[in-house]
Write a structure and sequence with these properties.
14 helices; single chain; 0% strand; mainly alpha; 68% helix
Amino acid sequence: MAGLGEVASVIAVLQLSGKVVDYVGKVRDASEDRKRLRDEIRACKRILQEIKDDSDDFEEGDAWADTLKTLERLDGPLPRLQSTLAQVETRLRKESTLKSSLRWPFQERDVRKMIEAIEREKSLLLLAQSKCSRQLLHQIKACAEHNSEQLADLLHSMNISSGNVDANFHKLTGQISDVQAHQVGLRNRIDRLQTRKDIQEGVKALEDILRWLTSYDHASKHHDIFSKRQEGTGTWFLESEEYRDWLSKSGSQKILCTGVPRAGKTTLTSIVIDDLQRRCHADRSVAVAYIYCDYKTRDEQTAELMLSSLLRQLVERQDTLAAPVKELYANHGNGRSRLN
């Protein structure tokens, strides 16, 4: 399981969204505003639940743990989403204690701002599900100042109560200042992607190229196989002299694992892949690429598909798109023709 701190942040926002949905469901007002807000929070809650479920299957140090840490950054979506939902929950809870039946306390313009605020953070949560923390970090940096300012405007507009709003408003204003100061330092390290538009275009270009290379989800296939193992399975192999010797040798080396059908070769391979990913996680110059072959889908396992999958995995590991990849994409009409 990923770090408890990161998962706890997701769980806290998940529980808060559940409370708000429950409160909204008790409101006697059947207006479209109420329904739209409820549906938006439900959609966000579903994404948070999926993120939480994914977190249960990953360990500290995995790439997914990095994604979780990115989500809970000061300028990340989780703190802003929690602030938005907390203000909605506070107002609805106050109404429920004053009256036997809840009355809708929000004006239409405030509901519109709430929905827009949740949608902005939801788009970042969806990007997080791609498990590419680098893309997510770029997008967060692009949106941080704007999203925080819009949230501050929302909290001020809602005017929950003079004391609470003032405290939250001033707290958020301070956070915006921290984000702005933080971004000044970051701008020196973001060379080609310096503006919000540049970052968005850079992310889109990468996504377009990855999608063009192949839509095959190699990571999900690996996760499905690896997650079915029993804890401790394959430890004997990872600790074996043959495996350690193979790891220590430089150059082109092969290690062959043979066995009868259903002996566990695929599971053992997934354990090796996971071990290699952990070892190479911090070194961006090293990539672990793999292919799982399945006799049930052998007609789909063409040479083009397998090579495209390997190339995509190598591209995903890079911090920037390599010139040969861009050239290859351009030579195919920017994705209008397939690799062959």
